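Dissemination and training. As part of the outreach component of the grant, students in the summer workshop were shown how a complex can be specified as a set of sequence lines and then modelled as a single object. The example used during the hands-on session is reproduced here so that future cohorts can follow it. Participants entered these lines:
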Amino acid sequence: MSGPEWLDDEAGPVVRPFALTRGRARSSADDMDVIAMVTATGERRPQGLVLGPEQERILHISRRAVSVADIASDLDLPLGVVRVLLGDLKDQGLISVRAPAAMATPRASERVLKEVINGLRAL
Amino acid sequence: MDFGPSDEPVALKILIAGGFGVGKTTLVGAVSEIRPLRTEEVLSDRGIGIDDLGGVEGKTTTTVAMDFGRITIREGLVVYLFGTPGQERFWFMWDELSYGALGAVVLADTRRLTDCFPSVDYFEQRGTPFIVAVNCFDGAARYEPEDVRIALDLDPDVPVLNCDVRLRSSAKTVLITLVEHALKKITTSRY
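and obtained this result:
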């Protein structure tokens, strides 16, 4: 798609980011961590539901678990906007969101951190 | 709370903090593929008093660009690196990013050591495990890590090391030092 020449990437987004969310900056996904993992549930869409192209892309990307940060980067949209879109999809039952594991259990974290250290050494 | 069964994917966060131009992006890029991430945040009252809104009273959102990188340790174990915006006015971003973070690397430039004071204060107050990595730019005056420790008034257990974040091996050492430090904090707090 080629727009008029005077409108290149330098001009910035043509549509203000929160226009995609119909102006909503808050959603049920406000506290969704940047590394929370999103997975499409594969549930059938509620009848009459029309999804925007961005949400269709999210459902496509999240066929395998993917982080909120990765989705925002893939869509080249601000995190706040992506959270609103994700909140809608979650409310519709179309995605599941898993919060990152907390570092609270010493034994489990110890095991994982040791694995990370070894993994970094092997990089 | 637990990491869950071993077959569940685990994602961990490491923050890369420090002043503007200190090499945060370079560090992330040395060990992972950099991906751009934008946030368009609604200015909350946390930003008021920090953000000088004089003349832009109508502005309710602000755009912050940051880098992040992803290191896959193995299938189902991924470490995310976030280069956090250095300026204090972005502390509202830090609150979000540092929640549940494994730890933080504070990158320091000895020519502008005061730039990393806010980061050090922030992680000390939150109890986030952190280390200080002194990025040795060409021609930058080199100080012994111990001198940096004294200048920053760091606790004796906070690791301080020199590095050159352009080098993958050096960047790896920085990250390993942080994870070892975080591990030590977990094992010592148990007793």
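Residues 1-6, 45-57 of chain B have pLDDT under 50 and may be disordered. Students were then asked to discuss how this feature might be tested experimentally.
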